[in-house]
Amino acid sequence: MDNFNNFALRHIGLSKTDIDVLLNYLGYKDIEEFSQSVLPENIFLNNKLELEDAMSEEEALNKLKEISKKNTVFKSFIGQGYYGTYTPKVILRNVFENPGWYTSYTPYQPEISQGRLEALINFQTMVGDLTGFEIANASLLDEATAAAEAMTLAARVGKSKSIKFFVDQNCFPQTISVVTARAKPIGIEVTIGDPMLLSETDNETYFGALLQYPGNDGSIIDFSKQIENIHKQNGLVIMASDLLALTLLKSPGELGADIAIGSSQRFGVPLGFGGPHAAFMATREKYKRSLPGRLVGVSIDEHGRTAYRLALQTREQHIRREKATSNICTAQALLAIMAGFYAAYHGPEGLKNIAQSIHLKTIGLAHEINVLGYDLKSNYFFDTFTIRTDDQTEEIISAAQSQMMNLRMLDKNHIAISLDETVTDSDVANLLKLFTKIGNEEKVISRLEIPSSLNRSSKYLTHPVFHLYRTETEMLRYIRKLSDKDIALDRAMIPLGSCTMKLNSTSEMIPVGWDEFSNIHPFAPDDQTGGYKILIRDLEAQLSEITGYSGVSLQPNAGSQGEYAGLLAIDAFHRANGDDQRKICLIPESAHGTNPASAQMAGMEVVPISCDKKGNIDLEDLRNTAEKYTSELAAIMITYPSTHGVFETTVTDVCQIIHDHGGKVYIDGANFNAMVGLCKPGQFGGDVSHLNLHKTFCIPHGGGGPGVGPIGVVEDLLPHLPSNPLSYDPDSRNVGPVSSTNFGSASILPISWMYIQMMGASGLRKATQVAILSANYIAQKLSSHYKVLYTGKNNLIAHECILDIRPLKESCGLEVDDIAKRLIDYGFHAPTMSFPVAGTLMIEPTESESLFELDRFIEAMINIREEIAQVEKGMMLIEESPLRNAPHCAQEVTRDDWPYKYSRSLAAYPADMNGRNKYWPPIGRVDNVYGDRNLMCSCPSMSEFKDKS
């Protein structure tokens, strides 16, 4: 009898009976025989993973609750880029806790993504308005990496020939660490100093400068003259800014800066021990094609209606590879959406009111402390001020902690205090009690305010979206209206190859909202974070066991950053051995675009390796190339199973060839959902791998982030894992940090901990087996209708299959897009298009889908093939078919003058759907060319906005 307290039965979509049906269809007697038929024998894992026994949902939640209680939630006045905030409950419940938002994918298919695209363009508009720039992206990973991205942007687009970059010594310490670490491998020389000493006659010429506004110590400085001086040297100026402060302060754009970066965390997103939070970047229109990250733009659909889409995708890593502007793929879409809703809910007046309240409390507290005889470091500040405490510093810090308050020790003589929207008058009074009169003469500053030259007079957030939803009722309906426009996992299967859109269970998500995890400052003292230490230690040990590696770093907050960190570890290993010349990175031609982009960021030279007709790495070409570069070879980057969806039987040979020539093997973990419990990359030749916890280990995709991309490494790479950003020495040979905080997006790690704890070793292995089984079932069912492009051992595939659509283009002019858009009429998100081969569809069902849903998808694909056959037979032209005119939105289906030769029912209810679970796309097919030719990346005009409503 099945134990329905067994979480694996809830997570895995196929019952035992269903599994037997699929095995019988494929010709196998049991799941073990099938698994051994798919994987190469020499890597197959016969032993069970050594993990704790599976727990029920309640048992796991109770255990994690006990762990969380070992965190102590203090009132933190630390600041340093992280601040207390209130998440409006209407946003908390209906966005943050809503699977309609958090289970959606990156909006590559705009027709079924209009809700989150609109929410993201609200974020872009908010950032652009507050920073004073024409264009902003749809989020980056965190403030420090955004600063590093801005540095490389300035190097690309600036006119200066210098390789030197200036960093304000008053930047946040974590930002300085990440920027200096990013600069090292690409040959940028960083100077850290006082920007007030920069002059137009300075002997040093910089291609760019990073200024903090307000500064790390809270001071507000008018940098207009310094910006002018940098410009006279043909340099560009980046300002790290605080969005809430910019409701009161003159914007970076108005001051003459070229780029603004920062974090939107304090717009309603909890501290979460460091993340995830949505960083931002805004710049001038002329730099739009070099802007890293996603960019949402306004276009039109085929009927002329306003539509949103991802714009200028040709600049991204999946297109430009090593020539890409960045390796960023996953960003922080869900958190950006929350920040955008926060701004819409409060509006410009509400945000300004919050900022003024914080500022007045800060001024009042600073004045009272100053009256007691403590010198203030600056007269001008927003929410943070620094006081000279000399030999009282540690005593005051300790006294604060005894009252469950955290202050920031700037150095042994200074304390910084940061206030935020959660600070009450009672909190201010408690802070004041920490300070007593000291003997020195009172030096009272008569005026504490923002300099008049920096008072903001320009308007911001003027678009109607920031004025219409001030009541909870209106905001609730707006959020619902947007989510209804999209397809997420709560509505249908999302069969995207290489994306692993599996169940994100409610039990896994619940702990993320617990105060003990969400309200911990990332720089809180160690004795307050005992629960996080246990959680992180557990997860590192679990992932080490699952991968076969000696150790794990959880710092990378995206797969792209995991790749980068892994390659930095390899580079550091070679340098430590005196092999500084090892800079060649071999990458198969089929690799995902992040691979070459990451190699370039790590200072390596990319050399491509050919693939044979079956998609496998060409061993002869690999041997010849490895021999050619034997003394320069740093690494190879391979994906396993391959991007072609098969377990290459020669993977151990590939690893051995590289090792024989002194190189290291990087195994991309994008497809690790096909390996868990069945093989271990650390045991069959891998030296380092990143994992996507937002794929394999159930962190939701959030419409394009958040993600976590930890790396596992073999023993000799352990000394070269990323450093803590607060203790990194840029003059050392250590690998620098790749994230603003030591544990990256720490607050979502409980999701993966819960998944592993509830599945146990047997459940994890079975999930992998079912994912592979379901993929083979789909491939076999569709093989008589479409060409399955690649197969591996025993004519089987791994966890995804690739359908070749190119013959259909030759036979009747069909495009991949036509199938993708027609699937929307059947209620499905399209598979991955044209990757890794142009003109193909890559399908990954995951283990979470039921047999009913698998069959529904198969039926839809077969019906679409029959529609294609009608075009092939000349029964209708492709231009007049439901394929080319898909998707069919309700406005078109109900129009009086139906213009098509096929019926309305065929358009809207194909395959006799009878309205079952009918999804209506809000728009028709989007005109991508129009969108890029007429680029607009902020909220459309009032008339267009009304049209979309």
TrEMBL record:
Catalytic activity: N(6)-[(R)-lipoyl]-L-lysyl-[glycine-cleavage complex H protein] + glycine + H(+) = N(6)-[(R)-S(8)-aminomethyldihydrolipoyl]-L-lysyl-[glycine-cleavage complex H protein] + CO2
Residues carrying N6-(pyridoxal phosphate)lysine: K695
Residue ranges of every copy of the Glycine cleavage system P-protein N-terminal domain listed in the record: 10-435
Function: The glycine cleavage system catalyzes the degradation of glycine. The P protein binds the alpha-amino group of glycine through its pyridoxal phosphate cofactor; CO(2) is released and the remaining methylamine moiety is then transferred to the lipoamide cofactor of the H protein.
Gene: gcvP
Glycine dehydrogenase C-terminal domain residues: 767-888
Transmembrane in keyword set: no
One GO molecular-function entry: pyridoxal phosphate binding
E.C. no: 1.4.4.2
GO cellular component, one term: glycine cleavage complex
Family of the protein in this entry: Belongs to the GcvP family.
Listed cofactors: pyridoxal 5'-phosphate
Record text on subunit structure and interactions: The glycine cleavage system is composed of four proteins: P, T, L and H.
Root EC class: oxidoreductase
Alphabetized UniProt keyword annotations: Oxidoreductase, Pyridoxal phosphate
Keyword Signal recorded: no
Entry protein name: Glycine dehydrogenase (decarboxylating)
Annotated GO biological process: glycine decarboxylation via glycine cleavage system
SUPFAM superfamilies in alphabetical order: PLP-dependent transferases (SSF53383)
